[in-house]
Amino acid sequence: MSKSFPIRNPELQTKLLPDGHVVVFNEVTLWAHILSPSGAVIWEFCDGQHSLDAIMDEMEALTGTRPEAAVTEQFIADMLENGLIIEL
To answer: What residues make up the domain containing 82?
Structure first.
């Protein structure tokens, strides 16, 4: 997966909550998913321009700590499996 460039599913609506969580909502299926603040940052970088490595670089720049590759890769795989993102 590290060679792919994930992109947010354009069919979904999002809402940033005051505490940093993001609600991702599919109006067709009426399905919603809540992303943690860390997940919301990863979600934001799923723009088709960032690979897994680039997303982890951005997370490190923002937080000062590099996230574990396996955890980040699994989170992205879960978002892909649940239709939150697609891969280019």
So the answer is: 6-87
Kindly indicate the confidence band of residue 66, based on its pLDDT and cuts at 50, 70 and 90: very high
pTM of the model: 0.87
**Each residue's pLDDT tens digit, 20-40:** 999 999 998 899 999 999 999
DSSP-based three-state secondary structure for 15: strand
1 in a structural domain: no
| Strand, coil or helix: 81 | helix
The CATH number of the domain holding residue 26 is 3.90.930.60
CA–CA distance, 57 with 49 (Å, rounded to integer): 13
